[in-house]
Amino acid sequence: MGLTDALAARFDVESHGSDVRTEAIAGLTTFLAMSYIIVVNPTILSNAIQIEGYSQGEVIQMIAIATVLSSAVATFVMAFYANRPFGLAPGLGLNAFFAFTVVLGLGVPWQTALAAVFVEGVLFILLTAVGAREYVIRLFPEPVKRSVGAGIGLFLLFIGLQELQIVANDETTLVTLGSVFGNPWAILGVLGLVLTFVLWARNVTGAIILGVLTTAVAGWALTFAGVFARGTVTPESLPSAQYDITPLAGAFVDGLSGIDPVTFVLVVFTFFFVDFFDTAGTLIGVSQFGDFLDEDGDLPDMDRPLMADAVGTTFGAVVGTSTVTTFIESSAGVEEGGRTGLTAFVVAALFLASLVLIPVVAAIPEYASFIALIVVGVMMLQGLVEVDWQDPAWAVSAGLTVTLMPFAYSIADGLAAGIVAYPIIKLAVGEGDEVALGQYLIAALLAAYYVLSTAGYIL
């Protein structure tokens, strides 16, 4: 039996109406669509993760390796355990929450933040193993679940606009339009953004990574041509290749000591909540493309792909990256005909192959990387169509969830606002009996926490 026949038999390709060639093309398509995360995740996390004795460029390479390894491990589990054509990697939004809210905002050491991701992953494994997914889902208001993706998208959009210096600080209005065309950094970012949106609108495979790389190449070309000095639109210096990740891997162990219990529980809760429902929503959405859903609109054996997510998150924390989740870009491969875990196997193999390109990651300017945040942020806003804006409880809960994430610069605060608002409005319209006891309890606990924290009694 040849390799092709062995792969076809292992993943039961024929019975799924596919073939090895189609699965391989689908895997390549999915990888190209989501490979931007290898560049973007290190750019975001390096704002928070600083390791003594190592330059930012070296840390970026370490995180890039952790990104690749966690993506490969999680996607291999998806392939062999779940036999589904879905790719996984550290999720956008969750890495922003890790860097900008938890570490830079709350002042939590990055090692402790990794410990929170590890704990969240372990909890996810346990809950998935006992089949508690549906029970947990029922504890959270439907409008929050439907709007959380759009809220994260708006948060990413805001971060991306700031990093590209399209949006700038203002003493009077807090934010304003930046001096875009007086700033080479912003000019290249805007032009790269336009290119990426055009490619995406025309359904070009790998539009985001093509936009990022093209923008980076343009920056280097202008530098080498003498238009800009080194350090203006390109890194001032490049580090040597850094494949030793021991300063990063295992750092979560140190983060388990000296933690503030209340803050740690809130961080774990938010990581868990967003990862849990983001993954579930992505799986359902991608499954619609492949006609994987049953007559009730559920994905059969959904606990298996959820377990891949959980294992990836736990392993990712060990090697040094934020929460791993299923990527909506998997739909690109499904549209190409991917129907089995062989597609995921190809994605995972390509992630491992990309390790040879790690030194290139440090050469990509930040403005090129942050293009991805804006594009993905806009894409995620599509989730707002699932909100029933005519229902007061839905409108208030979803509206607060979406808007407070960027305005408070915190995914956690947006989630909390939506969860607390839902039972209040339900009671106001005489529908309090439709709210579960668990929803009242969680809302009360969150309300108490925010009263005490904003009054300065706790962190």
From TrEMBL:
Lipid bilayer topology: Multi-pass membrane protein
Pfam family of the protein (one): Xan_ur_permease
Gene Ontology molecular-function annotations: purine nucleobase transmembrane transporter activity
InterPro entries membership: Azg-like (IPR045018), Azg-like_bact_archaea (IPR026033), NCS2 (IPR006043)
Membrane-spanning residues: 20-39, 59-81, 88-108, 114-136, 148-168, 180-200, 207-229, 262-286, 306-328, 340-360, 367-385, 405-425, 437-458
First-listed, main subcellular location of the protein, grouped into a coarse class: membrane
Assigned keywords, A-Z: Cell membrane, Membrane, Transmembrane, Transmembrane helix, Transport
GO cellular component, one term: plasma membrane
Cell location: Cell membrane
Family, as annotated: Belongs to the nucleobase:cation symporter-2 (NCS2) (TC 2.A.40) family. Azg-like subfamily.
Protein name in UniProt: AGZA family xanthine/uracil permease-like MFS transporter
